Amino acid sequence: MENHIHSTWARTFECRPRLFYQPKTMDDLVELVHSARSAGASLTVVGSGHSPSDIAMAPTTGWLVNLDRLCAVVSTFPATAQKTTEYSDVRVEAGIRVYQLNAALAFRGLALQNLGSISEQSIAGLISTGTHGSSSFHGPLAQQVVDLTLLTAAGDFRTVSPTTDPDLFKAALLSLGKLGIITHVTLRTIPAFNIHSVQEIIDFDRLLADWRTVWTTKEYVRVWWFPYSRKCVLWRAEKSTLPLSNPRSSFYGTWLGRTLYEAMLWFAVNIFPPSMPAVERFVFSRQYGSTQTYDTPGASVDEAVQGSVEGLNMDCLFKQYVNEWAVPMRDGVEILTQVDKLVSEAASKHDYYVHAPIEVRVSNCSVPPENDIPDSPFAIIRANSGIGAIPGNYCRSLLEYAPRVDYPSPGEPITVDNLTLYINATMYRPFGRDPPIGKWYSEFEAVMAQYGGRPHWAKNFIGPAGALNAKDEAKRKKKDGQMVGIAGVFAEWYGEDGQKFKKIREKLDPDMLFVGGREWAERNGLI
Ligand SMILES: Cc1cc2nc3c(=O)[nH]c(=O)nc-3n(C[C@H](O)[C@H](O)[C@H](O)COP(=O)(O)OP(=O)(O)OC[C@H]3O[C@@H](n4cnc5c(N)ncnc54)[C@H](O)[C@@H]3O)c2cc1C
Ligand SMILES: O=C1O[C@H](CO)C(O)=C1O
Questions:
Q1: pLDDT for residue 385 is more than 70
Q2: Predicted complex ipTM
Q3: Does any ligand 2 atom lie closer than 6 A to the CB of residue 359?
Q4: Ligand 1 pocket by C-beta < 6 Å: which residues?
Q5: 379 vs 139, more confident
Q6: 315-346 pLDDT, tens per residue?
Q7: 6, 107, 232, 470: which has the fewest Cβ within 10 Å?
Q8: Is 316 close to ligand 2, i.e. is its CB under 6 Å away?
């Protein structure tokens, strides 16, 4: 198709590729790879466009391919064949959206073990960017991958697993679309489950006081931080057989509440920025009340029992910019204290204002030493806690952005020392209007980098200052918050694993067929 315009879900970036394809068969896809090579065109692969950045933008001379029509469930390995009823491996075509997969699994009495905030993504896009949920007992969502198939620039299918080709598997587990086209994925799924969640309001200072224990109290834990209210929402959930029950009604879940919220944000962004803290406080009080309910006898808490998808997904509200970094959980108190200081000082100087919530989440990205991989998928993580992941693999992807932390010793409980903290600075675009993000994001990133943090690959990070030459820097400054990228620090931050990824990439794709979005790849040190 010609004249196709592709844009991100948040309408933050768009591109006009020379040609756009949605192949219906794997043979068509292979033919497309050969045709693009013969034509000397680049081939960018895009999923649902939910990455907030320009990571999947194709140049005007390039071709863009999307796998929405390659979305079948290929096979389900019956529990008996796997000699267990605790999990089932399911092979799918990689264009399947997570919501389609959720439905197909539910039909078979199965479910994904963990999810991120939404289910719009394609499974390939989710894997390729290091998407995560929020649990101390689960890794990034790619932990559920048992094997995957990559269509290479040569037009060959390569099915890789931790045993068949460990290096290529670790590269393909977070490949940013730059290695080839993921065509199939086998996922380790478990019997469908419901979750019982309890949502409490906790004072910011109390959260910091309980930091070392709160993250491991339930299988799924997430925090939304409202800095101007000095409060957080603490959401904790576990698998449950209790009867289903709905969560409490939501102020911004209604058309009126939601529109009012967006209108107030618009006013604060465009007319009177100093009103932002009051807007955030008002919305917080409508949505959640104004008192701490955590550890408060007699306080009414918000409980629900929902299917895993409804419970784990959430309402992400409006179109947005998102800048999220992974840092060591053990440094969380210091990091949040520093960010809190930034936010309040900026507001008192009328320098910039942030939007709420700042999402604060967790994963267990630690992996066992290579010679210590358990024979059984019932991992140490699970044995310790009685809950958590049945991993499809125990690999750390070469481009894993979570800092390295220790794997828990056998028999020892998981602690903050084994965990990754994700801090997600979302800035809404009320009615399509861009808020100022540059100064906030630069200061936020300086704190994250100070603690060895690295940005989530899919998001709107800027990157360390000073990485560009004067001409490019001048160009960049024309757009507030534009990405500088991490090319200047890639070697330092990704070390040997990063170099290995680049070598594998160059070998598989010497003519850079899959580096259509060349600018993004260059800015970030991948080529
Ligand atoms: C509202 C919202 C909520 C989100 N929630 C979370 C969250 O909870 N946790 C989290 O970590 N992230 C979250 N994200 C980010 C999102 O999960 C990732 O950006 C994900 O990559 C989006 O998948 P996609 O299918 O839209 O991929 P796209 O954004 O279209 O593409 C992403 C990357 O995947 C590559 N790719 C796509 N398909 C293939 C393929 N078949 N083969 C090889 N490469 C491919 C692309 O080339 C590109 O590099 C959220 C984003 C939004 C907008
Ligand atoms: O990128 C993301 O957007 C939402 C926040 O609104 C979320 O959870 C992400 O991750």
A1: no
A2: 0.99
A3: yes
A4: 9, 45-52, 55-56, 67, 94, 116-118, 121-122, 124-126, 128-129, 131-132, 176-177, 181-182, 316, 456, 458
A5: 139
A6: 999 999 999 999 999 999 999 999 999 999 99
A7: 470
A8: yes
